[in-house]
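Lecture 7 notes: from sequence to structure.
We start with the chain below.
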Amino acid sequence: MDNTVDLLLATYPSVSMLLVRLGAGIVFFAHGAQKVFGWFGGPGLKATIQTFQQYMKIPPPATVLAAFIECFGGLALIIGVLARPAALGLIVVMLVAVAKVHWQHGFFINFSGAPGKGHGFEFNFVLLMMLLAVLVAGAGLLSTDRMFRPLGD
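Predicted structure tokens for the same chain:
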């Protein structure tokens, strides 16, 4: 039991992991809140479901799951609660996004706005690396996880 709890929660008082966790958490929460609640100029859940179904053939239950993982997984990272499971769920969401949308456009973001060309997976790659860091190292300093399983004090 102790090993399982450590695997989920244990973390060192790392400032760098705090920064990585907060950066990823804010990005995912904001994008997820756009999809789930329509906040920050987003479409909301109904429109997100329609768009995902129409353009990517993703079924509504999978869309709802992905939107909730983004929103509440991002919130979990911000708070630092169950950061490793949140990171794992977000990694899956990002891998699907790369496979379904971004891979076909190559690596780079389409900063020039070239018509007919979407964004590559550059941004997703950076987010994936941040999430992998959280998955490996844990939530770091100022996290709820650390309150329950501190290491290195």
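Points to note: The mean pLDDT is 95. The helical segments are 2-9, 15-37, 44-56, 60-79, 83-102, 122-137, 144-148.
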